[in-house]
Amino acid sequence: MTIGKDVSSLFADVVKNMQTDDIELKKLVYLYLINYAKSQPELVILAVNTFVKDTDDPNPLIRALAIRTMGCLRVEEITNYLCEPLRKCLRDDNPYVRKTAAICVAKLYDLNPQLTVDNGFVATLQEMISDSNPVVVANAVAALSEINDSSSEKGIFSINNSILAKLLAALNESTEWGQICILTTLADYVPVDEKEAENIVERVIPRLQHANASVVLSAVKVFMVYMNQNYVTSEKIIQTIVKKMTPPLVTLVSDHSEIQYVALRNINLILQKRHDILNQEIRVFFCKYNDPPYVKLEKLEVMIQLCNEKNVDQVLSEFKEYCNEVDVDFVRRSVRAIGRCAIKLEAAAERCVNVLLELISSHVNYVLQEAIVVMKDIFRKYPHSYEGVIVNLCKNLESLDEPEAKASLIWIIGEYAEKIDNANELLEFFLENFKDESSMVQLQLITAIVKLFLKKPSQAQDSVQKILQTATQSCDNPDIRDRAYIYWRLLSTNPQAAKTVVLAEKPPIESRTKIVSDSLLDELIANIGTLASVYYKPASLFGGRTGDTKIFSTPAEDADADIEGVPGTTIGGVENLLDLDFDDSAPPKSSTPPSSAAPKSGMNDLLDLLNDDVPAMGNPMGMSQPATPSTNNVQNDLMSILGSGNNAMGSSGLMSPSNSGLGGLGGLNLIPKYNITILSKPIPPPACGETPYSKASNEKSNEKFIE
User: Fold this and answer.
1) Neighbours of 704 (CB within 10 A)
2) Which residues contact 204 (CB under 8 A, 6 or more apart)?
3) Among 66, 200, 497, 593, which residue's Cβ finds the most Cβ atoms within 10 Å?
4) What count of other Cβ atoms lies within 10 Å of the Cβ of residue 238?
């Protein structure tokens, strides 16, 4: 069984061996029953008598083993037989049996909630919080917390002054797991007043010295929640808490690698909420040569969080040393860390740039390329600063082979084209292999050459004509084609508008020290020491809770809620698009054409860049219009959205011949309009360079499309 072989056929024979005095053999039989109970539910009934008999055994170990096994069987047929033995075990004289029975109540509730409540087991658990044995108290708290989380009813587990005093008294004497359960309950508890909160904090502080890392993190969770929720507002108490929290966290970072990783992930969250913790302990987070890669990367994140003007030189020296490591991924992250420090601390930006220049001069390919990516971010944060660095960056043009590095250097050249004498030659170097570049590089190159053309028209006339023509005629990527068409139309019709749009001042980027949003951060702080705080994901994604109370709602759920609260809208005379029946007659059209609500604005309206409902315009920049695809092909109708305006279009902005059709937005005005037509004959195969439909559209006639 333990090596994966199916021995369920021996179920009846194994059950016969339950009545034995050998505890080890009995444990093996019980383990077998737990494993195969679901596959043989009708045969489990054969074991009930032995279970009931074992719960009356003089040996408390056998009584506890029997009640624990019955709770683990997870078979509906046995629940009714479980009630009486469980009731006796909950009142057993031996605390070991009582604490085992307490957990069994939670398992029974998960299987049959109504039966558990009707038999008074939940009420018995609440009474067990007053038990004289701290282990029983801890297990009762754990069971009640589990039931409270999974129940739709409120108030199953509530704490008053009497219960709080018993929990605090049991805290020191409980086992490690018991302490974690009690601390988690205290973190969820809302103190009556600040005095009570301070009393709880005072009783929990000794748990920071515990040898178990999970107990320490649970205690830290209590403190962070109480400070975050303003249960404790006294500055003196807060400073005491912060001072007491620092040594245990430092100790965790010196533990085994796995514990280090969990501690570092949680420390990162704590620092995002409380910047004054560990600000004097940055040396603890310096990477060691034998640290695993996952620990090194987390230490980098913590060092960035702790970096300030006082220790930035020490941090930069450490990062520079890391750039000589053999682990390429770690080196890249170290280079990026230098850039993040520059963005975070303006006063230290120049020192960070000098370190990056030293790394660039090393001519290590992956270091060089990562440094160029980082310099792009620094230029975005501090525009028109450190422009002297550009010359050094451009010298390494031929060494670049990664798309992100190429795109970053192209962006820098385009942004500072007026200050680079040979900017056109540099961009021509990339333009030669335009078709072979990645989409990231192609998009950035189009924008950079357009910027150069707007700043130095005489130098880039041929380049801009060449790249726009290549992008619109030879590229299969619709993003690249659309961007080229938009730039072409802008340059051909309104150069001043093109300058306003393309050369607009960009807002500087912000420091990316925030790992998660504020709302999610509050939830993760309340779940320190759990999977949620390690994965940085909401606690609702773990454990499969069935309760209706949610701390966090996903964006998808929010969208659904918004949709449900909005009255149904009418589109084309149909209240619900799902009710559209293309076999019925079309709904009556409104007497007022949709386009009449908006005045015609011509090509000067930048919102109509993709709309052909305009006459052909002049060419103030001396550029030819993009070629207009033929209107004889339905495929070309789609492409005519981006055409030059030579086709007679309807007010909807899409060509809709009677013998073919496409659904599309009626122009790009502020008020969206939707036009739906039906294809009445097969669509010809797409021409090279055009956007193809699915193959099925070429095989079936009368196919219905909603674009």
Assistant:
1) 14
2) 171, 183, 186, 219, 222, 223
3) 66
4) 17
Mean pLDDT of 129-153: 90
User: What SS3 class is residue 364?
Assistant: coil
Number of H helices, E strands in the chain: 33, 2
- What single DSSP character describes residue 130? T
Give the number of other Cβ atoms within 10 Å of residue 542's Cβ: 13
Contact 410, 444 (CB under 8 A): yes
Q: Which of 376, 358, 360 is nearest to 368 (CA)?
A: 360
pLDDT digits (tens, 9 = 90+) for 343-399: 999 999 999 999 999 999 988 999 999 999 999 999 999 988 888 899 888 988 888
Is residue 211 a contact partner of residue 175, using CB atoms and an 8 Å limit?
no
**Residue whose tokens read 């189009």:** 446
Do 37 and 43 contact (CB within 8 A), yes or no?
no
Q: Quickly state the pLDDT bin for 650 (edges 50, 70, 90).
A: very low
The answer to whether the CB of 503 falls within 8 A of the CB of 493 is: no
Q: Report which DSSP code applies to 683.
A: P
Asked if residue 232 lies in contact with residue 201, where contact means CB atoms within 8 angstroms, the answer is yes
Angle subtended at Cα 503 by Cα 499 and Cα 504, rounded to the nearest 5 degrees: 105
Helical (H) or strand (E) element with 318: helix 312-322
591-639 pLDDT tens trace: 444 443 444 444 444 444 444 443 333 344 555 555 544 434 434 433 3
pLDDT in the model for residue 627: 52
Report d(CA 381, CA 43) in Å as an integer.
Answer: 71
What does each C-alpha distance from 272 to 268, 386, 515 come to in angstroms?
6, 30, 8
- Give the integer Cα–Cα distance in Å for 614 and 612: 5
The one-letter amino acid code at 396 reads: N
Phi, psi of 574 (to 5 degrees): -115, 125
CA 437 distance to own-chain centroid: 30
CA distances from 634 to 84, 639, 682 (A): 76, 9, 10
CB within 8 Å of 61: residues ≥ 6 apart: 23, 96
Burial readout 368-380 (b: 16 or more C-beta within 10 A, e: otherwise): bbbbbbbbbbbbb
Q: Coil, helix or strand for 530?
A: coil
- Write b or e for each residue in 126-158: b if 16 or more Cβ atoms lie within 10 A of its Cβ, otherwise e: eebbebebbbbbbbbbbbbbbbbbbbeeeebbe
CA distances in angstroms from 658 to 589, 634, 653, 665, 680, listed in the order given: 17, 11, 15, 18, 9
Whether pLDDT at 316 is above 90? yes
Q: How far apart are CA 72 and CA 346, in angstroms?
A: 60
Query: Please, which residues bridge with residue 674 across strands?
Result: 665
What is the spatial distance between Cα 517 and Cα 513, in angstroms, rounded to a whole number?
A: 11
**Half-sphere exposure for 505 (CA within 13 Å, toward CB):** 6
Cα angle at 82 between 76 and 84, to 5 degrees? 145
Can you state the angle between helices 60-72 and 23-36, rounded to 10 degrees?
A: 10
For residue 706, give Cα distances in angstroms to 305, 311, 429.
49, 59, 43
Tokens linked to 368: 């060089």
